[in-house]
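Lecture notes, structural biology module. Today: joint structure prediction for complexes of two components.
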Amino acid sequence: MTTDTGSPDLEQVAAAVEGCPLVADLSGGRFGEVAAYLPGHRIVGVRVVGGEVEVHVVAGWGTPLPDVAQAVREAVGPAAGGLPVAVFIEDIVVPDRPEGDPVGTS
Amino acid sequence: MSQQSSTSSDLQPANGSNGSLVTGQGRTSIADSVVEKIAGVAAREVSGVHEMGRGAARAFGSIKGKLPVGGTGPSVSQGVKVEVGERQAAIDIDVVVEYGVSIPDVAQAVRDNVIQRLERMTGLQVTEVNISVDDVYLGDDSEPEPPRVQ
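The predicted structure, tokenised, for the full assembly:
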């Protein structure tokens, strides 16, 4: 984990993302390995790689994903310490049983 | 369905500043499984689509759905395969249609709905949607017939 230029505060990043209404949850990636490994604990779903703050999320249903990503970026804001924020939509919450649902009610 | 996304040009791939996946403040990456789920939901919404997936997947899906542990029925992405690039996606879908529908019409409706949903929700441009109709559903013959005499 690199910490240069105005090092990002990952705890704050994670808290900001979790508070974002369009995000269902932070995601540890397919294997659960995406996390910031800190002494004593880890923060799932955020890390700094190659000068980028990566945020891995599970999106809620119903909002275009670019808008979700934009909302995440805005929520993170200054907590990223000026680094670009790469948003990874790892999963999406699907509404209950779309089958048998009349068209377009989800 | 939802709000803010766009003006009248819903099918326009998101090249504009707003819906774009590649922005000045960082990139956005969408996992394949997300695209699969959205395509699966969109395809199932179309009336005339009975089920999705090839024979084996459907069999496993229904077994999985009966397991006590983690059985949430067949997953919404069953029957969907995607290839996702940075800006574009290509989709393959396996469906079972109901008997009595016009298959070309249903296929076209599935294609339109999948493209519209995906382009609006992901900002990816959908280059193709290939649909293969694997079976026709003839009705539920496991249902016992009502007795003929009371």
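Point to remember: Residues 1-18 of chain B have pLDDT under 50 and may be disordered.
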